[in-house]
Amino acid sequence: MLERPHSIVINTTPLIAIAVATGRLDVLHFLYQNVIVPAEVEQEIRAAGAAAPGVAEFDHSPWLQRLREPQSITPFLRNSLDLGEAAVIQAAVTAGVDHVCIDEKVGRRVARLHGLTVTGSVGVMAKAKQLGYALDGEQAIQRLRAHGIWLGRDVMRLLQSECQP
């Protein structure tokens, strides 16, 4: 059986991508006991307004652990990444959480430099499917594309192969 990490700190892009791909965020609750959302990430999610992709799903997920105080971000992180990614890494390091969910390549690289285990939106969906979560990879890809979210060829193949009905 695959190991289920206790906690994960998640960034804006994966929250939106998972919400768009599945129509909800409960796949995160299926995999992790604690899904931590830094205040900076919540601010980014809400920046485009209440009708923006992912906002309704975010609001209907009371089990998300929303951090209310902004992170005290190190200068290195603040100067290397966007605010959400920097806050995710800082929150994980500060709280002693080993796992983060970041989709952007540079953010993933910096998270690994901080000794964190990194996954992304597609990795979350693929792992959940392996553990028995009902997910259709083709339908997820269609939903993402309908919202203007495009995946790289390798990532798309992973989602298709791992998430067949």
Could you provide a short overview of the structure?
The protein has 165 residues and is of the alpha/beta class.
Strand order of the largest sheet: 3-2-1-4-5
Output the CATH homologous superfamily.
Answer: 5'-nuclease
The tally of domains stands at: 1
What is the second-level CATH architecture?
3-Layer(aba) Sandwich
Structure characteristics:
165 residues, alpha/beta, Rossmann fold, five-stranded parallel sheet, 5 strands, 53% helix
Any overview of this molecule?
The protein is of the alpha/beta class. Strand 4 (99-101), helix 7 and strand 5 form a beta-alpha-beta unit. It has a five-stranded parallel sheet with strand order 3-2-1-4-5. It has a single domain (7-133), classed as 5'-nuclease (Rossmann fold, 3-Layer(aba) Sandwich), CATH 3.40.50. The chain has helices spanning 12-22, 26-31, 39-46, 55-59, 75-80, 83-95, 105-113, 121-130, 137-146, 153-162; strands at residues 7-10, 34-37, 65-66, 99-101, 117-119. It is globular. Helix 1 packs across helix 8 (121-130), helix 1 (12-22) crosses helix 9 (137-146) and helix 9 (137-146) packs across helix 10. The model has no long low-confidence stretch (mean pLDDT 89). The chain is built from ten helices and five strands; from the N terminus they run βααβααβααβαβααα.
